[in-house]
Amino acid sequence: MTSTQTTYQLTRSIPAEAPYDLVVAGGGPAGTAAAVCAARRGLKVLLAEATGCLGGMGTSGLVSSFGPVSDGERMLVGGFMKELLQTMWEREAFAPQVTQDFLHRQLNRWVPFKPEHLKRILDEFVVQAGVDLRFFTRVVEADLGQGRINGVVLSNVEGLRYVPARTFIDATGDAALAALAGVPCKVVLRDTDTVSPSTLCSLLAGMDWQDPAYGSDWRGIDEVKAKVKNQWVPQAIEEGFFTQDDRFFPGMNRIGDNGATLNAGHVFNLNPLSVRSLSDGMVFGRKLALEYAEFYRKYVPGCADLELLTTAPVMGVRDSRRIVGEFELNIEDFRAKRQFPDQIAVYNRPTDVHPTDTSKAEFDRFMKDFHGKDNLGRGDCVGIPYSILVPRGSHNLWVAGRCHSSDTKVHGSIRAQSAAYMMGQAVGTAAAQSIATGQPACDLDTAVLVQQLRADGAYLPQEGLSSRMTRA
Ligand SMILES: Cc1cc2nc3c(=O)[nH]c(=O)nc-3n(C[C@H](O)[C@H](O)[C@H](O)COP(=O)(O)OP(=O)(O)OC[C@H]3O[C@@H](n4cnc5c(N)ncnc54)[C@H](O)[C@@H]3O)c2cc1C
User: Fold this and answer.
1) Which domain holds residue 237?
2) Does one domain contain both 128 and 277?
3) N or C: which end of the chain has fewer CB within 10 A?
4) Within a domain: residue 167?
5) Whether residue 43 sits in one domain with residue 169
6) In-domain check, residue 472
């Protein structure tokens, strides 16, 4: 290569595999649910996951807490997500403070779990469903023709492989496959929008959860969390303890007898679609994690012997690329608690768009949004329509999870893992319907889809159904 050369044309033959009905890119919450639900409907499914485990942010990212699963009165999650919760309950995969009541009736409670248990349960689900699971495998190219994706190129230790398929689901969080396929996307960066910063989460041991400050159930833990935010963080900032004076972080999740995960330390202005920025962010995130461990040891009860065991191997990216979908769910829909004929899930979680810098103005903006009147109350929910999972005009590609089509505020709510699992079930089921009927993703009979999801346990309270999806 000469010094003036800016591109290199790669032309080579690579092995091609036998065709699949469905290729799912990404084995996080959305992709795992999609692959399992499609395979259970009889599809031959390949699930390509870049890391060595399923669960995405919930496992690799050490984000060991499901966003709310109830509206304070009813369980809002059904189908695959409910089955997962029940299995986790039976296998003691939740943190010790989680009770049945906590799951069913605590409005806007986050549900902490043990990541290693989740990994193993998802492995079992995928293997039992007969999914062809490929770890350490990335989708790196899309083969397009006649308005469809015909196949993808996978990259792993064996080299490059071409895999043809009839349908595709992008559950990469970053809309990686959609972008490769030329789907119009919104790239969400600080200079174009209010965008939640990233966080490198960590795993801690040596917590004394028996310290009287924590009481006997989750209420005591909540009280300490509130004091961390309102008392000890401001005090530490006042005393010049931190490298960056960040007033907000979600804090510690108890996940075991003396263990915890920590969601603390914002990496501001990180561009999740730049490998240089991600690399710099990992280096900075590891420094911050050490500092937060030291903060807890110094200021917080029960933490004197706390040890930082490890940081996550992947950056905790809250937002990066979202598709331009057949419909964009927006804050007006959210405020109106809008229900849709084609909704594939309902949800209730605050609009959680983290402060974009360390300023008081951003902290105040976050607090106002998070606790403000926009948010849904007890017994409320907003619908998640099918059409936010369909790239505009798409024939055989769906997305699920973080890269769906919503505005920034709504994204701050429905990017949660529990919602991602439900979106995954919906698109896995949609792919099966599409293959069975020949209906393209953008013209699927959504009344049939909703009835199938209900039959498979989804909680979908809308009264009227429509065979056509909601569009703008
Ligand atoms: C710091 C932080 C804290 C959070 N806190 C909470 C919380 O408390 N509760 C909650 O419910 N949610 C929380 N969230 C949000 C939630 O974790 C994510 O939005 C959710 O996991 C999204 O699910 P997903 O399946 O879309 O993506 P992910 O969980 O990101 O999974 C995507 C998967 O795709 C894989 N992948 C990516 N690219 C490729 C490729 N090209 N080929 C193959 N595989 C690929 C990745 O390795 C990953 O496993 C938090 C997020 C962050 C970052």
Assistant:
1) 198-311
2) no
3) N
4) yes
5) yes
6) no
Confirm whether 7 is domain-assigned: no
279 and 185 within one domain: no
State both tokens at 440: 């393209």
CA-nearest residue for atom 20, ligand 1, is 417
68 lines ligand 1 (CB under 6 A): no
CB 326 within 8 A of CB 387: yes
Helix/strand/coil for 236: helix
Residue 316 main-chain phi, psi, to 5 deg:
-85, 90
Q: Give 262-298 pLDDT, tens digit per residue.
A: 999 999 999 999 999 999 999 999 999 999 999 999 9
Ligand 1 centre distance from Cα of residue 50 (Å): 12
Co-location of 272 and 365 in the same domain: no
Global pTM value: 0.97
Residue 401 Cα to ligand 1 middle (Å): 8
Ligand 1 mutation target, pool 57, 201, 370, most atoms within 8 A of CB: 57
The mean pLDDT of 287-313, rounded to a whole number, is 97
Q: Are residues 395 and 412 in the same domain?
A: yes
Q: Which of 49, 63, 70, 422 to mutate to test the pocket of ligand 1 (most atoms within 8 A of CB)?
A: 63
Q: pLDDT tens for residues 423-456?
A: 999 999 999 999 999 999 999 999 999 999 999 9
Which residue's CA lies nearest to atom 3 of ligand 1? 63
Task: Single out the residue in 254, 281, 311 at which a domain terminates.
Answer: 311
265 close to ligand 1 (CB < 6 Angstrom): no
Instruction: Give nearest CA residue, ligand 1 atom 27.
Output: 173
Report the residue among 255, 398, 417 best suited for mutation to probe ligand 1: largest number of ligand atoms under 8 A from its CB.
Answer: 417
Residue nearest to atom 37 of ligand 1 (CA): 172
Residue owning the nearest CA to atom 19 of ligand 1: 415
